[in-house]
UniProtKB/TrEMBL annotation, chain B:
Residue ranges occupied by any ABC transporter domain in the UniProt entry: 2-128
PROSITE patterns listed in its UniProt record: ABC_TRANSPORTER_1
Protein name: Cytochrome C biogenesis protein CcmA
Alphabetical GO biological process terms: cytochrome complex assembly
Molecular-function annotations in GO: ATP binding; ATP hydrolysis activity; transmembrane transporter activity
Keywords: ATP-binding, Cytochrome c-type biogenesis, Membrane, Nucleotide-binding, Translocase, Transport
SUPFAM superfamilies reported for this sequence: P-loop containing nucleoside triphosphate hydrolases (SSF52540)
NCBIfam families: ccmA (TIGR01189), PRK13538.1 (NF010061)
InterPro entries: ABC_transporter-like_ATP-bd (IPR003439), ABC_transporter-like_CS (IPR017871), ABC_transptr_haem_export_CcmA (IPR005895), P-loop_NTPase (IPR027417)
Length: 228, 177
C-alpha cells in the first residue's frame, strides 16, 4: 500500500462524506430552515403586521433566528462520528486533525448556513425589508454564518462526549455569538439609514479570518479531550 | 501479543493509552524510543487501531466506508476493492447501507482495513467479536501473514490463540477495586 499525502484529498473526502450523509437524511437540511421560517413568521403575528415596525425590528429577528437555527444542527456535527468511532480513526490518521475539522465545519456551513443566506430574500419580503437592507442582510449572513459554525463547533467538540450535551452547548456558545450579533445587526441598521456599513462588514470579515485560522485548533483539542 | 484479563480489568483503557487517545496518569508510551505524545503523527503512520467502536458509519455502504477510510489515511485508492470484498464475504452487499448488515458483517467491513494498510503495529480491541468460525480462521490467517512480514499485533480477546501462534506473549491484567 502506497501512501500519498494530499491535504486536498483529506479535505474533500471529509467534506464529501458529511454532505453525502446530509443529503441522505434531508430532514437535517430542511428542518433548521423550517424552524427559521416559522420563528420569523411568528413575529408579525405576535407584534402586529405594521410595516414600519416590522422593518425596524427585522434585522434583530433575522439574526436571532439564524443563531437559533444554526444551534439546531451543531449538536449533530461530531455526535455520529463520536459514537461510531470514526473520530478515533480521524485522530489516528497521519493527517493533522485541524484540517479534518476545518473540512467538517465547512460542510456544516454548506448544509446549514448557505441555505439560510439563499433564502433571505423570502424573509425580507415577510418582514418588509427594503432592497438596501436586504443586501446588507445577505452580506452579514454570508460573513456571519460561517463564523457561527466555527464558534459553535468549539462548543460541539467540548460537549460531544456528554449524554445531554445540547443545552450545555447552547449555554457555552450563545454568549460567544453576541459580538457577531452586535456587528451584524448594526450593519443592517446602518444600511436602512442609507449610510456606509463597510466598517461593520470589515470587522465581521476580520473575525471570520481569525476564526478560520484559530478555531480548528481549538476544536481539535476539544475533540481530543472528549475522546480520551 | 495478547492482552488478557477479566472484564473491567482495564484492557481497553490500556489499548487506548497505547494508541494515544488517552494520556496516562503516570509514565509514557514510547514508539522506537520516542514519546508518542510528542511525535504522534510519526506514530500514527505506523499504527492501525480498530477499537470496540469500529469507525464504520452505518448510513454509508461498505464500499463507501472503506474508500473514506483509505482517503483519510492517505492511501492510494487504486486497490481492487471488489476482489477484497468478495474475499471477506461481503460480495453483493457493497451497495447496502452498513446498518442493514448483520453484526458479524459490520465487523467484517471494519476488518477490511487489515488488508489495506502498511502499518507495522496493529492495535485491535476484541477483533473476533461477532465473527463466525470461518471468519475467525480467516482473520488468524491474515495475522500470520502480517507477523511474517515483520509486523506486530497487540490485541485483546477471550479466545485461546496459543495453538495458532507459537511465540504468542500474553500479558494478564488483574482486576483491582
Amino acid at each position: 500500500m502506497i501512501r500519498q499525502h494530499s491535504y486536498w484529498q483529506l479535505f474533500s473526502a471529509v467534506c464529501k462524506k458529511d454532505l453525502q450523509l446530509a443529503f441522505r437524511q434531508r430532514a437535517e437540511i430542511v428542518n433548521p430552515l423550517l424552524f427559521f421560517l416559522i420563528v420569523i413568521t411568528l413575529f408579525p403575528l405576535a407584534i402586529g403586521p405594521e410595516p414600519g415596525l416590522l422593518a425596524r425590528i427585522a434585522p434583530g429577528i433575522i439574526w436571532v433566528a439564524a443563531l437559533l437555527s444554526t444551534m439546531l444542527g451543531l449538536d449533530k456535527l461530531f455526535r455520529d462520528d463520536y459514537h461510531d468511532g470514526s473520530l478515533e480513526q480521524l485522530i489516528a490518521s497521519s493527517y493533522p486533525l485541524p484540517l479534518t475539522v476545518l473540512a467538517k465545519v465547512v460542510a456544516h456551513w454548506i448544509i446549514t448556513g448557505l441555505p439560510l443566506v439563499l433564502m433571505t430574500p423570502l424573509f425580507a419580503l415577510l418582514l418588509n425589508l427594503d432592497t438596501n437592507a436586504l443586501i446588507a442582510t445577505v452580506l452579514t449572513l454570508l460573513l456571519g454564518t460561517p463564523l457561527l459554525s466555527f464558534i459553535g463547533a468549539i462548543g460541539a467538540g467540548l460537549t460531544v462526549g456528554l449524554q445531554k450535551g445540547g443545552i450545555l452547548m447552547s449555554l457555552l456558545v450563545l454568549p460567544l455569538y453576541i459580538p457577531v450579533l452586535i456587528f451584524a445587526t448594526s450593519a443592517i441598521e446602518t444600511s436602512t439609514m442609507s449610510l456606509d456599513y463597510s466598517g461593520q462588514l470589515a470587522i465581521l470579515g476580520a473575525m471570520l479570518v481569525v476564526a478560520i485560522l484559530s478555531a480548528p485548533i481549538a476544536i481539535s483539542s476539544a475533540l481530543k479531550v472528549s475522546v480520551s | 501479543m495478547q492482552l488478557a484479563g477479566p472484564n473491567g480489568a482495564g484492557k481497553t483503557s490500556l489499548l487506548r493509552i497505547i494508541a494515544g487517545f488517552s494520556v496516562p496518569d503516570e509514565g509514557d508510551v514510547l514508539w522506537q524510543g520516542k514519546s508518542i505524545i510528542k511525535n504522534y503523527d510519526e506514530f500514527a503512520r505506523e499504527l492501525l487501531f480498530i477499537g470496540h467502536k469500529t469507525g464504520v458509519n452505518s448510513q454509508l455502504t461498505a464500499l463507501e466506508n472503506v474508500q473514506f477510510w483509505l482517503q483519510i489515511q492517505g492511501y492510494n485508492d487504486t486497490q481492487d476493492l471488489y476482489a477484497l470484498l468478495a474475499k471477506i464475504g461481503l460480495v453483493g452487499l457493497e451497495d447496502v447501507p452498513v446498518r442493514m448488515l448483520s453484526a458479524g458483517q459490520q465487523r467484517r467491513v471494519a476488518l477490511l482495513r487489515l488488508w489495506l494498510n502498511s502499518a507495522k503495529l496493529w492495535v485491535l480491541d476484541e477483533p473476533f467479536t461477532a465473527l463466525d468460525k470461518a471468519g475467525v480462521a480467516f482473520l488468524q490467517q491474515r495475522f500470520i501473514t502480517h507477523l511474517e512480514q515483520g509486523g506486530a499485533i497487540l490485541l485483546t480477546t477471550h479466545q485461546d490463540l496459543t495453538t495458532h501462534f507459537n511465540d504468542l506473549q500474553t500479558v494478564t491484567l488483574e482486576y483491582r477495586h
